[in-house]
Amino acid sequence: MSIVMPDSIRLGRECSQPKHDPAFGACAGCAVRELSVCGVLVPAEINEFEKLSRSTDFEARSTLFTEDEPATQIFNITQGVVRLYKLLRDGRRQIVGFALPGDFLGLALQDDYSVSADAVTQVTACRFQRNAFTQFLDVHPLMMRRLHEMASHELSLAQDQMVLLGRHNADERLALFLLALSERYIRIGESGVNVQLPMSRQDIADYLGLTIETVSRTFSRLAKAKLIVVVPDGVRLLETEGLRQLANG
Known about the structure:
Blueprint lengths: L42 H8 L2 E6 L4 E3 L7 E7 L2 E6 L5 E7 L4 E2 L10 E4 L3 E7 H9 L2 H27 L2 H18 L6 E3 L4 H8 L3 H13 L3 E4 L2 E4 L2 H8 L2
Antiparallel strand pairs: 1-8, 2-7, 3-6, 3-8, 4-5, 4-7, 9-11, 10-11
């Protein structure tokens, strides 16, 4: 359900210790609370909501949940990056998105998870039992409305992904991916110029519907065109406007 983060929430790293605010309890230290479903709650409601959650850590490459298993839990990502994917009938993997801090996972109305979710980096999440979460929503209509808004946004992203895979060549797909990731990082306080890429080239290939060889060659072409510079933890965007022109065909 959906990049730049503040220094206090670097991908896969510990958050700095928050200043204590008794009005919000432990939730005072959540740097992405305002971006999440719970951002509409007032202090008393936040304290009530906090009692329903349990902070859980996941090591990189561990699984949060698996497609088709009962959707008994909901996760609010507070640190790290999560890979969302489906396994196709022929055994191939289609990555459908990357979840970042502030994203809620498992909110769909189906009884089973529609995708699988694995930690790309070390991940910290607030975990909720689904029944308790839905009961809380029943008596907090503003949060329900926020949830509907986020679901609508996710639907829009899914539609964009269909267009991405169906109408664009490799260069255009990668340019769109980097620009979208940059915008998401900016939303959570990170630099939109230095774009972290904790996911593998294979992950990017499975998201963009390309082969890993094509992804590697496309990174090289964008670097040769001086649109990006490949750095150890990702890329630096040199010509954002040039990437936009490329992405628009």
